[in-house]
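FOLDING PROBLEM:
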Amino acid sequence: MNNSLKIWFMYHKIESESYALQIRDFSDDVKKNLLSIVEEVDDEDWYDISKWDVFYRVEGLFGRLDFPSNANELNQYYRKLIDVQGVSKNQINKIFSSVYEKDIQFANELKKINESINTINSSLNKMNQAFKL
């Protein structure tokens, strides 16, 4: 199973109420932060047992690897997921590129809907004016 699919499953497995209320932030600042976390994980010494992902995996098995309820713990949560899932800079860049593409597509669809609404509204105003005569 590829890492993107693992992340997708993990995303849908999380049941925390705090996660449901979290705003998904795909800003450049968040992207830079995630890329720096990937770099930090990649640059860690293998013999630093405090950073071994086996501890994070155990947390996950016992349901303790949960979305944090406050923003201060968010980076630590991201770090654990990045380490456990072996997320690369390329994957982060792909995720953000996909989001930006979807954002453009969604904006174009909303623009079309807005144009249709404006056309209908104009027609209704013309009919309204015709009945007022």
